[in-house]
Design brief:
193 residues, mainly alpha, 4 helices, bZIP_sf, DNA-binding transcription factor activity, bZIP
């Protein structure tokens, strides 16, 4: 199985010019870059497509450009080393960017899930508060009905009390009048005896 670096180099070499001999330089590059991430779960990125690794997109290293092909065939080893360093740097940057994008997608997904949980919790709280408010409104209505009933009873009792007080005043006045009448009637008889 090829490493990610070998695959990327294979794609870059595959995008070279047809007449360019990329395997005859005698240089053996063995890059052992150990990136700790799973390429199969990178959020849908397919590392096997040439577009992502630069082949056919015009974004390949300068070792595959026509101008440098002649210098590479001419044996310019310093240009090849610089080109390989540039390609390695670009590959590391691409890998780093992919990993950063994967982490960003994971953070965005986690944040979306947190927001969904918060929304559900708020909806649950709203339902609970609506039920509490409904129960409180029912209790308030019951209290208002009781208050109205008690106010009506109090008004009826006040009327009965006022009527009782009037009757008591009349009874007291009547009792005084009787005593006075009895006292007057008893007084002439006392005088005659």
């Amino acid at each position: 199985m090829l490493s990610l670096m070998d695959e990327a180099m294979e794609f870059d070499f595959a995008g070279a010019l047809p007449g360019m001999d990329v395997g005859s330089s005698g240089l053996d590059f063995d890059f052992d870059l150990d990136f700790d991430f799973d390429t199969t779960t990178s959020g849908g990125t397919d590392f096997d497509t040439p577009e992502l690794c630069g082949a056919g997109s015009g974004v390949t290293g300068t070792a595959t450009s026509p101008a440098n092909a002649s210098s590479m065939n001419a044996g310019s080893s310093s240009g090849v080393v610089v080109d390989e360093e540039e390609r390695r740097r670009r590959l590391k940057r691409r890998i780093s960017n992919r990993e950063s994008a994967r982490r960003s997608r994971a953070r965005r997904q986690q944040r979306a899930e947190e927001l969904e949980r918060a929304v559900e919790e708020l909806r649950s709280q709203r339902r609970a508060l609506a039920a509490t408010a409904g129960a409180a409104a029912a209790r308030a209505l019951a209290v208002r009905v009781d208050n109205a009933r008690l106010a009506a009873e109090a008004a009826a009792l006040r009327r009965r009390l006022a009527e009782a007080q009037r009757q008591a005043v009349l009874l007291v006045a009547l009792a005084r009048a009787r005593r006075t009448a009895m006292a007057v009637a008893a007084a002439p008889g006392m005088m005659t005896s």
